[in-house]
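Appendix B, record 7
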Amino acid sequence: MMKRLDDFQLLSSRARALAMRLSWLIVLLIAGATVCAGQTTGSTDGWVVLQVDDYRALWRAAYPMAAEPEPPPVEATLTRVDYDLRVDGDFASGDARLTVDVIKEGWVRVPIPGGLLVRQARLDGRPVSLVTQASEKGTAASYLLLSRTGRSVLTLAIVVPVSAVAGTEMLKLPASASAISRASVVLPRAGVDVRITGGLLLETSDTGAGSRWVAHGRGAGALTFAWRRKLDDQRSSQTLRIRGAVTQLVGLGEDTTQINAECQVEVLAGLAKEVRLRLPDQFTVNQVSGALVADWESTANELVVVFLEPVSQAARFTLSGEVRLPRDGQIDIPLIRLPSAERETGGLAIEVLGAGEIKDRRQTGLEEAEAAYLGPLISSRQSPSLIAFRLPPAEGRAARSLSLRVARYTPQAVLAANVEEAAYNALITQDGKVLVQSRFAVRNNQRSFLKLNLPPGAVLWSVSVAGRPIRPGLAPDGSLLVPLEKSRTSEEAPAFTVEVAYLDRAVAWGDKGKGKLSLLTLDMAISRSRLLVHHSPLFRLTPAPGSFRAAVYEGPESGLLRAASSSGGEVEAGASVSGPTKELVDRLHQGGPSAGPARNLPIRIAFPHFGPSIFLVSELTSENQTPVLEFEYQRERKGGAR
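C-alpha coordinates (predicted):
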Protein backbone atom coordinates (compact mmCIF):
# COMPACT_ATOMS: atom_id res chain seq x y z
CA MET A 1 0.00 0.00 0.00
CA MET A 2 1.38 3.38 -0.99
CA LYS A 3 0.87 6.51 1.01
CA ARG A 4 1.91 10.08 0.49
CA LEU A 5 4.86 11.20 2.62
CA ASP A 6 3.08 14.17 4.14
CA ASP A 7 0.17 11.98 5.31
CA PHE A 8 2.63 9.55 6.81
CA GLN A 9 4.45 12.35 8.68
CA LEU A 10 1.13 13.59 10.13
CA LEU A 11 0.26 10.08 11.32
CA SER A 12 3.68 9.53 12.86
CA SER A 13 3.57 12.83 14.79
CA ARG A 14 0.18 11.96 16.32
CA ALA A 15 1.42 8.48 17.13
CA ARG A 16 4.42 9.90 19.01
CA ALA A 17 2.12 11.98 21.18
CA LEU A 18 -0.31 9.16 21.97
CA ALA A 19 1.89 6.00 22.03
CA MET A 20 5.50 6.38 23.14
CA ARG A 21 6.10 2.66 22.79
CA LEU A 22 6.11 2.98 18.96
CA SER A 23 8.68 5.78 18.82
CA TRP A 24 11.48 3.49 17.62
CA LEU A 25 9.43 2.38 14.62
CA ILE A 26 8.52 5.97 13.74
CA VAL A 27 12.18 7.03 13.80
CA LEU A 28 13.14 4.28 11.36
CA LEU A 29 10.28 5.16 9.01
CA ILE A 30 11.17 8.86 9.02
CA ALA A 31 14.79 7.98 8.24
CA GLY A 32 13.71 5.77 5.34
CA ALA A 33 11.42 8.47 4.00
CA THR A 34 14.27 11.01 4.07
CA VAL A 35 16.51 8.70 2.01
CA CYS A 36 13.77 8.14 -0.54
CA ALA A 37 13.09 11.89 -0.72
CA GLY A 38 16.85 12.59 -1.36
CA GLN A 39 16.85 10.29 -4.40
CA THR A 40 14.09 12.30 -6.12
CA THR A 41 14.63 15.40 -8.26
CA GLY A 42 14.48 17.76 -5.26
CA SER A 43 10.74 17.42 -4.66
CA THR A 44 9.48 17.17 -1.03
CA ASP A 45 6.87 14.62 -2.07
CA GLY A 46 7.68 10.94 -1.80
CA TRP A 47 6.40 7.45 -1.05
CA VAL A 48 7.03 4.87 1.68
CA VAL A 49 6.15 1.18 1.85
CA LEU A 50 4.50 -0.14 5.08
CA GLN A 51 3.23 -3.52 6.12
CA VAL A 52 -0.52 -3.68 6.73
CA ASP A 53 -0.03 -4.72 10.39
CA ASP A 54 2.33 -1.81 11.02
CA TYR A 55 -0.10 0.64 9.48
CA ARG A 56 -2.96 -0.69 11.61
CA ALA A 57 -0.82 -0.43 14.75
CA LEU A 58 -0.02 3.20 13.94
CA TRP A 59 -3.70 3.91 13.24
CA ARG A 60 -4.80 2.40 16.59
CA ALA A 61 -2.13 4.42 18.40
CA ALA A 62 -3.22 7.65 16.71
CA TYR A 63 -6.94 7.05 17.13
CA PRO A 64 -7.43 4.88 20.25
CA MET A 65 -10.88 3.38 20.78
CA ALA A 66 -12.78 3.56 24.08
CA ALA A 67 -12.76 0.39 26.23
CA GLU A 68 -15.77 -1.80 25.75
CA PRO A 69 -18.15 -1.80 28.76
CA GLU A 70 -18.21 -4.91 30.91
CA PRO A 71 -21.31 -7.06 30.61
CA PRO A 72 -23.85 -6.89 33.46
CA PRO A 73 -23.45 -9.50 36.24
CA VAL A 74 -26.86 -10.97 35.44
CA GLU A 75 -28.83 -10.94 32.24
CA ALA A 76 -32.30 -10.69 33.77
CA THR A 77 -33.94 -10.96 37.19
CA LEU A 78 -37.28 -12.29 38.37
CA THR A 79 -38.18 -9.48 40.74
CA ARG A 80 -41.58 -10.49 42.05
CA VAL A 81 -44.14 -13.29 41.80
CA ASP A 82 -47.81 -12.71 42.69
CA TYR A 83 -50.32 -15.55 42.85
CA ASP A 84 -54.09 -15.11 42.75
CA LEU A 85 -55.68 -18.55 43.11
CA ARG A 86 -59.04 -20.10 43.87
CA VAL A 87 -59.36 -23.64 45.25
CA ASP A 88 -61.85 -25.88 43.46
CA GLY A 89 -61.74 -29.52 44.55
CA ASP A 90 -58.38 -31.15 43.91
CA PHE A 91 -56.94 -28.17 42.01
CA ALA A 92 -56.38 -24.46 42.50
CA SER A 93 -56.55 -22.29 39.39
CA GLY A 94 -55.81 -18.66 38.77
CA ASP A 95 -53.08 -16.31 37.63
CA ALA A 96 -49.41 -15.91 38.43
CA ARG A 97 -47.92 -12.51 37.63
CA LEU A 98 -44.14 -12.50 37.17
CA THR A 99 -42.35 -9.16 37.20
CA VAL A 100 -39.19 -9.47 35.05
CA ASP A 101 -36.36 -6.92 34.74
CA VAL A 102 -34.07 -7.39 31.69
CA ILE A 103 -30.62 -5.80 31.96
CA LYS A 104 -28.59 -7.25 29.08
CA GLU A 105 -28.93 -6.17 25.47
CA GLY A 106 -30.04 -8.94 23.15
CA TRP A 107 -31.82 -12.19 23.84
CA VAL A 108 -32.01 -13.44 27.43
CA ARG A 109 -33.64 -16.45 29.04
CA VAL A 110 -35.90 -16.04 32.13
CA PRO A 111 -36.71 -19.24 34.09
CA ILE A 112 -40.32 -19.95 35.08
CA PRO A 113 -41.00 -21.45 38.58
CA GLY A 114 -41.17 -25.22 38.26
CA GLY A 115 -44.17 -27.35 39.18
CA LEU A 116 -46.76 -25.04 37.62
CA LEU A 117 -49.20 -26.26 34.95
CA VAL A 118 -49.30 -23.29 32.55
CA ARG A 119 -52.36 -23.03 30.32
CA GLN A 120 -51.65 -19.62 28.81
CA ALA A 121 -48.91 -16.96 28.91
CA ARG A 122 -49.25 -13.26 28.11
CA LEU A 123 -46.44 -10.65 28.15
CA ASP A 124 -47.77 -7.15 28.79
CA GLY A 125 -51.14 -8.30 27.41
CA ARG A 126 -49.78 -10.04 24.31
CA PRO A 127 -49.73 -13.86 23.97
CA VAL A 128 -46.25 -15.42 24.09
CA SER A 129 -44.84 -18.91 23.97
CA LEU A 130 -42.64 -20.61 26.56
CA VAL A 131 -39.62 -22.75 25.75
CA THR A 132 -39.35 -26.13 27.50
CA GLN A 133 -35.93 -27.68 27.92
CA ALA A 134 -34.67 -30.70 29.89
CA SER A 135 -32.41 -29.76 32.81
CA GLU A 136 -29.31 -31.56 34.07
CA LYS A 137 -31.41 -33.48 36.62
CA GLY A 138 -33.67 -34.88 33.91
CA THR A 139 -36.70 -32.70 34.69
CA ALA A 140 -38.25 -30.32 32.19
CA ALA A 141 -37.89 -26.59 32.83
CA SER A 142 -39.73 -23.75 31.13
CA TYR A 143 -38.16 -20.48 30.00
CA LEU A 144 -39.25 -17.20 28.51
CA LEU A 145 -37.07 -15.60 25.79
CA LEU A 146 -36.91 -11.79 25.84
CA SER A 147 -34.93 -9.27 23.80
CA ARG A 148 -36.25 -6.02 25.27
CA THR A 149 -34.49 -4.33 28.21
CA GLY A 150 -36.48 -2.89 31.09
CA ARG A 151 -39.39 -4.20 33.13
CA SER A 152 -42.06 -6.52 31.80
CA VAL A 153 -44.96 -8.36 33.42
CA LEU A 154 -45.60 -11.96 32.40
CA THR A 155 -49.08 -13.27 33.30
CA LEU A 156 -49.54 -17.04 33.46
CA ALA A 157 -52.85 -18.86 33.68
CA ILE A 158 -51.88 -21.77 35.95
CA VAL A 159 -53.29 -24.81 37.72
CA VAL A 160 -51.74 -26.13 40.98
CA PRO A 161 -52.69 -29.52 42.48
CA VAL A 162 -54.15 -29.71 46.02
CA SER A 163 -53.14 -32.74 48.12
CA ALA A 164 -54.87 -34.17 51.21
CA VAL A 165 -53.20 -36.01 54.12
CA ALA A 166 -55.09 -37.18 57.24
CA GLY A 167 -57.90 -34.67 56.83
CA THR A 168 -55.55 -31.77 56.08
CA GLU A 169 -55.53 -30.24 52.60
CA MET A 170 -52.36 -28.60 51.31
CA LEU A 171 -51.56 -26.22 48.48
CA LYS A 172 -47.82 -25.90 47.75
CA LEU A 173 -46.49 -23.07 45.61
CA PRO A 174 -43.00 -23.82 44.22
CA ALA A 175 -39.82 -21.96 45.09
CA SER A 176 -38.58 -19.35 42.64
CA ALA A 177 -35.61 -17.05 42.13
CA SER A 178 -37.65 -13.97 42.99
CA ALA A 179 -37.03 -11.80 46.03
CA ILE A 180 -40.74 -11.41 46.90
CA SER A 181 -43.57 -13.90 46.65
CA ARG A 182 -47.15 -12.98 47.45
CA ALA A 183 -50.10 -15.33 47.29
CA SER A 184 -53.83 -14.73 47.61
CA VAL A 185 -55.89 -17.93 48.00
CA VAL A 186 -59.69 -18.13 48.06
CA LEU A 187 -61.36 -21.24 49.48
CA PRO A 188 -65.12 -21.51 48.80
CA ARG A 189 -65.65 -23.01 52.24
CA ALA A 190 -65.90 -21.43 55.70
CA GLY A 191 -65.08 -22.79 59.13
CA VAL A 192 -61.48 -23.91 58.53
CA ASP A 193 -58.17 -23.39 60.34
CA VAL A 194 -55.22 -22.44 58.13
CA ARG A 195 -51.49 -22.81 58.76
CA ILE A 196 -48.67 -21.28 56.66
CA THR A 197 -45.27 -22.88 56.12
CA GLY A 198 -42.41 -20.99 54.49
CA GLY A 199 -43.98 -17.56 54.87
CA LEU A 200 -46.11 -15.22 56.95
CA LEU A 201 -49.89 -15.00 56.98
CA LEU A 202 -50.76 -11.31 56.69
CA GLU A 203 -54.52 -11.29 56.16
CA THR A 204 -57.39 -13.71 56.69
CA SER A 205 -61.10 -13.11 56.24
CA ASP A 206 -64.10 -15.44 56.61
CA THR A 207 -67.48 -14.82 55.02
CA GLY A 208 -70.52 -16.94 54.43
CA ALA A 209 -69.26 -17.73 50.91
CA GLY A 210 -65.77 -18.87 51.96
CA SER A 211 -62.36 -17.87 53.29
CA ARG A 212 -59.60 -15.73 51.82
CA TRP A 213 -55.94 -15.74 52.87
CA VAL A 214 -53.05 -13.46 51.89
CA ALA A 215 -49.49 -14.54 52.68
CA HIS A 216 -45.94 -13.48 51.82
CA GLY A 217 -43.23 -16.06 51.15
CA ARG A 218 -39.46 -15.96 51.47
CA GLY A 219 -38.90 -16.00 47.70
CA ALA A 220 -36.19 -18.66 47.71
CA GLY A 221 -38.40 -21.32 49.40
CA ALA A 222 -41.73 -22.97 48.79
CA LEU A 223 -44.90 -21.43 50.25
CA THR A 224 -47.42 -23.96 51.60
CA PHE A 225 -51.03 -23.43 52.68
CA ALA A 226 -52.48 -26.17 54.91
CA TRP A 227 -56.07 -26.10 56.16
CA ARG A 228 -58.50 -28.39 57.87
CA ARG A 229 -62.01 -28.20 59.23
CA LYS A 230 -62.28 -26.19 62.42
CA LEU A 231 -63.16 -28.36 65.39
CA ASP A 232 -65.73 -27.14 67.87
CA ASP A 233 -63.92 -26.73 71.21
CA GLN A 234 -66.26 -26.89 74.16
CA ARG A 235 -63.48 -26.35 76.69
CA SER A 236 -63.74 -22.58 76.54
CA SER A 237 -67.30 -22.73 77.88
CA GLN A 238 -66.51 -25.19 80.67
CA THR A 239 -65.81 -24.27 84.28
CA LEU A 240 -62.09 -24.27 85.00
CA ARG A 241 -60.87 -27.20 87.08
CA ILE A 242 -57.19 -27.60 87.88
CA ARG A 243 -54.77 -29.67 89.90
CA GLY A 244 -51.45 -28.37 91.12
CA ALA A 245 -48.12 -29.28 92.69
CA VAL A 246 -46.05 -26.67 94.55
CA THR A 247 -42.48 -27.54 95.57
CA GLN A 248 -40.81 -24.97 97.84
CA LEU A 249 -37.29 -24.45 99.18
CA VAL A 250 -37.03 -22.08 102.17
CA GLY A 251 -33.58 -20.78 103.15
CA LEU A 252 -33.50 -19.21 106.65
CA GLY A 253 -30.80 -16.55 106.51
CA GLU A 254 -29.38 -14.14 109.03
CA ASP A 255 -31.19 -11.11 107.58
CA THR A 256 -33.76 -12.36 105.07
CA THR A 257 -35.38 -15.67 104.15
CA GLN A 258 -35.13 -16.75 100.50
CA ILE A 259 -37.99 -18.81 99.02
CA ASN A 260 -37.75 -20.58 95.66
CA ALA A 261 -40.80 -22.44 94.38
CA GLU A 262 -41.72 -24.56 91.38
CA CYS A 263 -45.40 -24.72 90.41
CA GLN A 264 -46.98 -27.26 88.04
CA VAL A 265 -50.60 -26.82 86.95
CA GLU A 266 -52.72 -29.53 85.29
CA VAL A 267 -55.98 -28.44 83.62
CA LEU A 268 -58.82 -30.93 83.99
CA ALA A 269 -61.62 -28.90 82.38
CA GLY A 270 -61.90 -25.52 80.70
CA LEU A 271 -59.01 -23.25 79.67
CA ALA A 272 -56.61 -21.60 82.10
CA LYS A 273 -55.77 -18.06 81.02
CA GLU A 274 -54.14 -17.29 84.36
CA VAL A 275 -53.29 -18.89 87.71
CA ARG A 276 -53.61 -17.27 91.13
CA LEU A 277 -51.35 -18.22 94.06
CA ARG A 278 -51.73 -17.20 97.70
CA LEU A 279 -48.57 -15.63 99.13
CA PRO A 280 -47.40 -15.30 102.76
CA ASP A 281 -47.55 -11.98 104.55
CA GLN A 282 -44.78 -9.48 103.73
CA PHE A 283 -43.54 -11.70 100.89
CA THR A 284 -41.77 -9.92 98.01
CA VAL A 285 -41.76 -11.63 94.60
CA ASN A 286 -38.50 -11.08 92.73
CA GLN A 287 -38.92 -13.17 89.58
CA VAL A 288 -41.46 -15.42 87.81
CA SER A 289 -40.27 -17.37 84.77
CA GLY A 290 -41.61 -20.09 82.52
CA ALA A 291 -42.02 -21.01 78.86
CA LEU A 292 -45.74 -20.08 78.84
CA VAL A 293 -45.56 -17.07 81.19
CA ALA A 294 -46.54 -13.80 79.52
CA ASP A 295 -46.81 -11.51 82.55
CA TRP A 296 -47.26 -11.57 86.31
CA GLU A 297 -48.52 -9.20 88.98
CA SER A 298 -48.01 -9.39 92.74
CA THR A 299 -50.29 -7.80 95.30
CA ALA A 300 -50.34 -8.01 99.12
CA ASN A 301 -51.13 -11.74 99.42
CA GLU A 302 -51.72 -12.87 95.84
CA LEU A 303 -49.67 -13.58 92.73
CA VAL A 304 -51.42 -13.60 89.33
CA VAL A 305 -49.51 -15.38 86.53
CA VAL A 306 -50.86 -14.74 83.00
CA PHE A 307 -50.08 -17.23 80.21
CA LEU A 308 -49.22 -16.47 76.60
CA GLU A 309 -52.27 -18.41 75.44
CA PRO A 310 -55.02 -20.32 77.27
CA VAL A 311 -53.62 -23.56 78.69
CA SER A 312 -55.68 -26.66 77.97
CA GLN A 313 -53.36 -29.35 79.38
CA ALA A 314 -50.46 -28.40 81.66
CA ALA A 315 -48.10 -25.53 82.48
CA ARG A 316 -45.03 -25.10 84.64
CA PHE A 317 -43.26 -22.03 86.03
CA THR A 318 -40.87 -21.06 88.82
CA LEU A 319 -40.84 -18.10 91.19
CA SER A 320 -38.43 -16.65 93.72
CA GLY A 321 -38.80 -14.09 96.46
CA GLU A 322 -37.85 -13.12 100.00
CA VAL A 323 -39.44 -12.38 103.34
CA ARG A 324 -38.06 -11.14 106.66
CA LEU A 325 -38.28 -13.65 109.53
CA PRO A 326 -36.70 -13.76 112.99
CA ARG A 327 -33.04 -14.74 113.05
CA ASP A 328 -33.56 -17.47 115.61
CA GLY A 329 -36.14 -18.77 118.05
CA GLN A 330 -39.64 -19.95 117.18
CA ILE A 331 -40.43 -19.36 113.49
CA ASP A 332 -43.62 -19.99 111.48
CA ILE A 333 -42.55 -21.07 107.99
CA PRO A 334 -44.37 -19.16 105.19
CA LEU A 335 -46.04 -21.33 102.54
CA ILE A 336 -47.06 -20.59 98.94
CA ARG A 337 -50.45 -22.15 98.19
CA LEU A 338 -52.64 -22.86 95.14
CA PRO A 339 -56.11 -22.25 96.60
CA SER A 340 -58.09 -22.86 93.38
CA ALA A 341 -56.71 -26.39 92.91
CA GLU A 342 -59.04 -29.35 93.49
CA ARG A 343 -55.99 -31.34 94.57
CA GLU A 344 -52.73 -29.83 95.76
CA THR A 345 -49.51 -31.82 96.18
CA GLY A 346 -45.80 -31.05 96.19
CA GLY A 347 -42.97 -30.75 98.68
CA LEU A 348 -41.36 -28.42 101.21
CA ALA A 349 -37.74 -28.17 102.34
CA ILE A 350 -36.20 -25.88 104.97
CA GLU A 351 -32.50 -25.22 105.47
CA VAL A 352 -30.60 -22.94 107.83
CA LEU A 353 -28.12 -20.65 106.11
CA GLY A 354 -25.11 -20.06 108.32
CA ALA A 355 -24.18 -21.56 111.67
CA GLY A 356 -27.38 -22.95 113.15
CA GLU A 357 -29.70 -25.92 113.37
CA ILE A 358 -33.37 -26.79 113.61
CA LYS A 359 -34.39 -27.98 117.07
CA ASP A 360 -38.15 -28.59 117.33
CA ARG A 361 -40.87 -28.70 114.70
CA ARG A 362 -44.63 -29.04 114.56
CA GLN A 363 -46.44 -29.57 111.26
CA THR A 364 -50.05 -29.74 110.07
CA GLY A 365 -50.99 -31.28 106.74
CA LEU A 366 -47.35 -32.23 106.02
CA GLU A 367 -45.51 -35.54 106.08
CA GLU A 368 -41.77 -35.98 106.60
CA ALA A 369 -39.98 -37.30 103.51
CA GLU A 370 -36.57 -37.81 101.98
CA ALA A 371 -35.24 -34.77 100.10
CA ALA A 372 -34.02 -36.98 97.24
CA TYR A 373 -37.62 -37.82 96.26
CA LEU A 374 -38.96 -34.26 96.08
CA GLY A 375 -37.56 -33.18 92.72
CA PRO A 376 -34.33 -31.51 91.53
CA LEU A 377 -35.10 -28.20 93.29
CA ILE A 378 -34.69 -29.86 96.69
CA SER A 379 -32.59 -32.94 95.96
CA SER A 380 -29.72 -30.79 94.62
CA ARG A 381 -29.18 -29.15 98.04
CA GLN A 382 -26.35 -30.49 100.22
CA SER A 383 -27.03 -28.56 103.43
CA PRO A 384 -26.54 -30.59 106.67
CA SER A 385 -29.43 -28.75 108.34
CA LEU A 386 -31.97 -29.54 105.61
CA ILE A 387 -35.32 -31.08 106.53
CA ALA A 388 -37.98 -32.05 103.96
CA PHE A 389 -41.73 -32.69 103.94
CA ARG A 390 -44.22 -34.01 101.43
CA LEU A 391 -47.58 -32.37 100.79
CA PRO A 392 -50.16 -35.17 100.76
CA PRO A 393 -53.02 -34.75 98.27
CA ALA A 394 -55.59 -32.30 99.62
CA GLU A 395 -57.73 -29.39 98.52
CA GLY A 396 -55.90 -26.16 97.82
CA ARG A 397 -57.60 -24.47 100.80
CA ALA A 398 -56.82 -27.30 103.25
CA ALA A 399 -54.92 -26.35 106.40
CA ARG A 400 -51.14 -26.73 106.13
CA SER A 401 -48.60 -25.19 108.51
CA LEU A 402 -45.11 -25.71 109.87
CA SER A 403 -43.55 -24.20 113.00
CA LEU A 404 -39.98 -24.83 114.18
CA ARG A 405 -37.28 -23.45 116.46
CA VAL A 406 -33.90 -22.35 115.12
CA ALA A 407 -30.78 -22.18 117.27
CA ARG A 408 -27.93 -19.98 116.05
CA TYR A 409 -24.27 -20.35 117.01
CA THR A 410 -21.43 -17.84 117.04
CA PRO A 411 -19.17 -18.62 114.10
CA GLN A 412 -15.45 -19.01 114.65
CA ALA A 413 -13.42 -16.14 113.27
CA VAL A 414 -11.32 -16.96 110.21
CA LEU A 415 -8.81 -15.11 108.10
CA ALA A 416 -10.66 -12.24 106.47
CA ALA A 417 -9.89 -9.19 104.40
CA ASN A 418 -12.90 -7.50 102.87
CA VAL A 419 -14.44 -4.12 102.15
CA GLU A 420 -17.95 -4.26 103.58
CA GLU A 421 -19.09 -1.05 101.92
CA ALA A 422 -17.63 1.69 99.76
CA ALA A 423 -19.02 5.22 99.66
CA TYR A 424 -17.91 7.54 96.84
CA ASN A 425 -18.56 11.27 96.53
CA ALA A 426 -17.64 12.83 93.19
CA LEU A 427 -17.81 16.43 91.98
CA ILE A 428 -17.53 16.91 88.19
CA THR A 429 -17.17 20.38 86.70
CA GLN A 430 -17.93 21.28 83.13
CA ASP A 431 -14.30 22.29 82.45
CA GLY A 432 -13.06 18.74 83.16
CA LYS A 433 -12.04 18.81 86.85
CA VAL A 434 -13.08 15.76 88.90
CA LEU A 435 -12.78 15.61 92.70
CA VAL A 436 -13.43 12.18 94.24
CA GLN A 437 -13.69 11.27 97.93
CA SER A 438 -13.68 7.50 98.65
CA ARG A 439 -14.52 5.96 102.03
CA PHE A 440 -14.19 2.21 102.68
CA ALA A 441 -15.42 0.17 105.65
CA VAL A 442 -12.71 -2.52 105.94
CA ARG A 443 -12.48 -5.66 108.07
CA ASN A 444 -9.03 -7.20 108.21
CA ASN A 445 -7.08 -9.73 110.26
CA GLN A 446 -4.95 -11.02 107.39
CA ARG A 447 -3.48 -8.24 105.25
CA SER A 448 -0.79 -5.71 106.16
CA PHE A 449 -1.35 -3.33 103.26
CA LEU A 450 -4.18 -2.29 100.98
CA LYS A 451 -2.97 -1.91 97.41
CA LEU A 452 -4.78 0.71 95.34
CA ASN A 453 -4.33 2.32 91.93
CA LEU A 454 -5.46 5.82 90.99
CA PRO A 455 -6.95 6.51 87.55
CA PRO A 456 -4.31 7.48 84.97
CA GLY A 457 -3.37 11.13 85.41
CA ALA A 458 -5.03 11.52 88.83
CA VAL A 459 -3.30 13.36 91.71
CA LEU A 460 -3.56 12.04 95.27
CA TRP A 461 -4.73 14.58 97.87
CA SER A 462 -5.02 12.71 101.15
CA VAL A 463 -5.21 9.25 102.72
CA SER A 464 -6.39 8.37 106.23
CA VAL A 465 -6.86 5.08 108.10
CA ALA A 466 -9.25 4.93 111.07
CA GLY A 467 -9.35 8.75 111.13
CA ARG A 468 -5.54 9.18 111.20
CA PRO A 469 -3.85 10.78 108.17
CA ILE A 470 -1.02 8.63 106.78
CA ARG A 471 1.50 8.73 103.98
CA PRO A 472 1.07 5.71 101.67
CA GLY A 473 4.01 3.76 100.31
CA LEU A 474 4.86 3.17 96.68
CA ALA A 475 5.00 -0.34 95.22
CA PRO A 476 7.46 -1.29 92.42
CA ASP A 477 4.61 -1.30 89.87
CA GLY A 478 3.55 2.25 90.82
CA SER A 479 0.62 1.24 93.05
CA LEU A 480 -0.01 2.90 96.43
CA LEU A 481 0.34 0.79 99.59
CA VAL A 482 -1.88 1.85 102.51
CA PRO A 483 -1.00 0.23 105.89
CA LEU A 484 -4.04 -1.43 107.49
CA GLU A 485 -5.03 -2.13 111.05
CA LYS A 486 -4.84 -5.80 111.91
CA SER A 487 -6.57 -7.81 114.64
CA ARG A 488 -5.86 -11.25 115.99
CA THR A 489 -6.94 -14.24 113.92
CA SER A 490 -8.89 -15.70 116.87
CA GLU A 491 -10.97 -12.56 117.22
CA GLU A 492 -13.72 -11.09 115.10
CA ALA A 493 -12.10 -8.42 112.92
CA PRO A 494 -13.54 -4.99 113.78
CA ALA A 495 -14.35 -2.60 110.98
CA PHE A 496 -12.41 0.62 110.38
CA THR A 497 -12.50 3.29 107.70
CA VAL A 498 -10.01 4.04 104.94
CA GLU A 499 -10.47 7.39 103.22
CA VAL A 500 -8.79 8.44 99.97
CA ALA A 501 -9.26 11.75 98.14
CA TYR A 502 -7.81 12.59 94.74
CA LEU A 503 -8.18 15.04 91.86
CA ASP A 504 -8.62 13.81 88.30
CA ARG A 505 -8.85 15.42 84.87
CA ALA A 506 -11.43 14.70 82.15
CA VAL A 507 -12.44 16.16 78.82
CA ALA A 508 -14.26 19.49 79.06
CA TRP A 509 -17.97 19.29 78.37
CA GLY A 510 -19.64 20.68 75.28
CA ASP A 511 -23.37 21.10 74.82
CA LYS A 512 -23.94 17.37 74.54
CA GLY A 513 -21.84 14.22 74.75
CA LYS A 514 -20.68 11.25 76.78
CA GLY A 515 -18.40 11.07 79.81
CA LYS A 516 -16.79 8.49 82.05
CA LEU A 517 -15.85 8.48 85.73
CA SER A 518 -13.21 5.92 86.80
CA LEU A 519 -12.81 5.17 90.52
CA LEU A 520 -10.07 3.54 92.57
CA THR A 521 -8.90 -0.02 91.85
CA LEU A 522 -8.42 -2.09 95.03
CA ASP A 523 -6.83 -5.51 95.48
CA MET A 524 -9.68 -6.36 97.86
CA ALA A 525 -13.27 -7.35 97.09
CA ILE A 526 -16.06 -4.84 97.80
CA SER A 527 -19.42 -6.19 98.94
CA ARG A 528 -21.52 -3.15 98.05
CA SER A 529 -20.86 0.37 96.75
CA ARG A 530 -22.73 3.66 96.73
CA LEU A 531 -21.86 6.63 94.52
CA LEU A 532 -23.08 10.22 94.82
CA VAL A 533 -22.18 12.38 91.79
CA HIS A 534 -22.52 16.18 91.88
CA HIS A 535 -22.43 18.15 88.63
CA SER A 536 -23.07 21.58 87.19
CA PRO A 537 -26.70 22.78 87.33
CA LEU A 538 -26.37 23.85 83.70
CA PHE A 539 -26.35 20.22 82.56
CA ARG A 540 -28.50 17.12 82.86
CA LEU A 541 -26.75 13.78 83.50
CA THR A 542 -28.15 10.38 82.50
CA PRO A 543 -26.21 7.29 83.70
CA ALA A 544 -25.63 4.53 81.14
CA PRO A 545 -26.28 0.86 81.98
CA GLY A 546 -23.29 -0.76 83.66
CA SER A 547 -22.01 -1.91 87.02
CA PHE A 548 -23.78 1.01 88.76
CA ARG A 549 -27.54 1.46 88.70
CA ALA A 550 -29.59 4.50 89.68
CA ALA A 551 -31.48 4.31 92.98
CA VAL A 552 -33.29 6.46 95.53
CA TYR A 553 -30.81 8.10 97.88
CA GLU A 554 -30.20 6.33 101.17
CA GLY A 555 -27.49 6.56 103.77
CA PRO A 556 -24.68 4.03 104.15
CA GLU A 557 -25.54 0.71 105.79
CA SER A 558 -22.22 0.60 107.63
CA GLY A 559 -22.33 2.42 110.97
CA LEU A 560 -18.79 3.74 110.49
CA LEU A 561 -19.58 5.30 107.10
CA ARG A 562 -22.87 6.64 108.38
CA ALA A 563 -21.08 8.37 111.25
CA ALA A 564 -18.40 9.68 108.88
CA SER A 565 -21.07 11.07 106.54
CA SER A 566 -22.88 12.88 109.36
CA SER A 567 -19.83 14.28 111.14
CA GLY A 568 -17.45 14.27 108.22
CA GLY A 569 -14.42 13.98 110.48
CA GLU A 570 -13.21 17.11 108.74
CA VAL A 571 -12.28 20.64 109.71
CA GLU A 572 -14.17 23.24 107.70
CA ALA A 573 -12.36 26.32 106.45
CA GLY A 574 -12.49 29.04 109.06
CA ALA A 575 -13.38 26.69 111.95
CA SER A 576 -11.53 27.11 115.23
CA VAL A 577 -8.98 24.48 116.25
CA SER A 578 -8.68 23.49 119.93
CA GLY A 579 -7.35 20.72 122.16
CA PRO A 580 -4.19 18.73 121.36
CA THR A 581 -4.40 19.67 117.69
CA LYS A 582 -4.28 23.36 118.57
CA GLU A 583 -1.24 22.84 120.81
CA LEU A 584 0.58 21.00 118.01
CA VAL A 585 -0.19 23.76 115.51
CA ASP A 586 0.97 26.41 118.00
CA ARG A 587 4.27 24.54 118.49
CA LEU A 588 4.90 24.46 114.77
CA HIS A 589 4.10 28.15 114.40
CA GLN A 590 6.34 29.17 117.30
CA GLY A 591 9.42 27.49 115.78
CA GLY A 592 12.66 27.98 117.70
CA PRO A 593 15.53 25.64 118.41
CA SER A 594 13.47 23.32 120.57
CA ALA A 595 10.60 23.12 118.16
CA GLY A 596 12.44 20.75 115.80
CA PRO A 597 12.22 20.76 112.01
CA ALA A 598 8.94 21.87 110.44
CA ARG A 599 6.85 19.04 108.98
CA ASN A 600 3.93 19.17 106.56
CA LEU A 601 0.69 18.12 108.26
CA PRO A 602 -1.85 16.20 106.17
CA ILE A 603 -4.88 18.40 105.67
CA ARG A 604 -8.42 17.02 105.36
CA ILE A 605 -10.78 19.35 103.53
CA ALA A 606 -14.56 19.06 103.69
CA PHE A 607 -15.96 17.65 100.45
CA PRO A 608 -17.96 20.36 98.59
CA HIS A 609 -21.49 19.02 98.13
CA PHE A 610 -22.53 21.46 95.42
CA GLY A 611 -25.07 21.39 92.59
CA PRO A 612 -27.59 18.72 91.58
CA SER A 613 -26.64 15.09 92.10
CA ILE A 614 -27.45 11.55 91.06
CA PHE A 615 -27.22 8.52 93.35
CA LEU A 616 -26.14 5.06 92.21
CA VAL A 617 -25.44 1.71 93.87
CA SER A 618 -23.53 -1.44 92.95
CA GLU A 619 -22.88 -4.88 94.45
CA LEU A 620 -20.01 -7.35 94.45
CA THR A 621 -17.02 -5.57 92.95
CA SER A 622 -14.25 -8.14 92.64
CA GLU A 623 -10.63 -7.45 93.52
CA ASN A 624 -8.48 -5.58 90.98
CA GLN A 625 -11.64 -4.45 89.16
CA THR A 626 -12.00 -0.76 88.31
CA PRO A 627 -15.51 0.60 89.01
CA VAL A 628 -16.51 2.77 86.06
CA LEU A 629 -19.56 5.02 85.60
CA GLU A 630 -20.43 6.02 82.04
CA PHE A 631 -22.98 8.77 81.51
CA GLU A 632 -24.45 11.13 78.95
CA TYR A 633 -24.66 14.87 79.56
CA GLN A 634 -26.70 17.58 77.84
CA ARG A 635 -26.87 21.28 78.46
CA GLU A 636 -30.20 22.37 79.88
CA ARG A 637 -32.25 24.81 77.86
CA LYS A 638 -32.65 28.33 79.12
CA GLY A 639 -34.83 28.27 82.20
CA GLY A 640 -34.65 24.44 82.39
CA ALA A 641 -31.76 24.09 84.86
CA ARG A 642 -32.54 21.96 87.88
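Remarks on this record: The radius of gyration is 44 Å. The CA atoms of residues 16 and 24 lie 10 Å apart.
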